[in-house]
Design goal:
The protein is an all-beta fold and 126 residues long. It has one domain. The chain contains no helices and 14 strands.
């Protein structure tokens, strides 16, 4: 089970992370953060099943994930066994078994087995 650190202070364990309208849940349990925390940063140490986030500043995964999706936020990870999708943000991963897609951001990876799409960014190999 991965250790999940939210805004450099809140530490929980889990395998599935979701943020919707600023409400954070890990494995279905609500995680409260300071109300004045307008920016959300997530650091995951270990492997997770899924990350599904509507908005955050940054997601760092020091491990592997099956899927990662964010509407707004940069994604940095080791390997993703499925797809990585963000509407507004960069994707920087070692390897992606599925596809990598961002509308507004760069995509950087060693290898992506599926398709790679960005509307207003660049695509680079590591």
């Amino acid at each position: 089970m991965a250790q999940i650190i939210i805004n450099n202070s809140k530490v929980v364990s889990g395998r599935n992370i979701s943020i919707t309208n600023g409400k954070i849940t890990v494995d279905g349990k609500r995680i409260d953060i300071e109300e004045n925390d307008k920016v959300i940063n997530i650091l995951v140490q270990g492997d997770v099943e899924s990350i599904d986030v509507d908005a955050c500043e940054r997601i760092d995964i020091k491990g592997n994930s099956k899927t990662v999706r964010t509407t707004s936020g940069n994604v940095y990870c080791y390997d993703v066994q499925g797809d990585v999708t963000t509407t507004s943000g960069d994707i920087d991963c070692d390897n992606v078994a599925g596809s990598a897609k961002t509308v507004s951001g760069d995509v950087v990876a060693n290898r992506i087995n599926g398709s790679v799409n960005t509307v207003s960014g660049d695509i680079h190999n590591k």
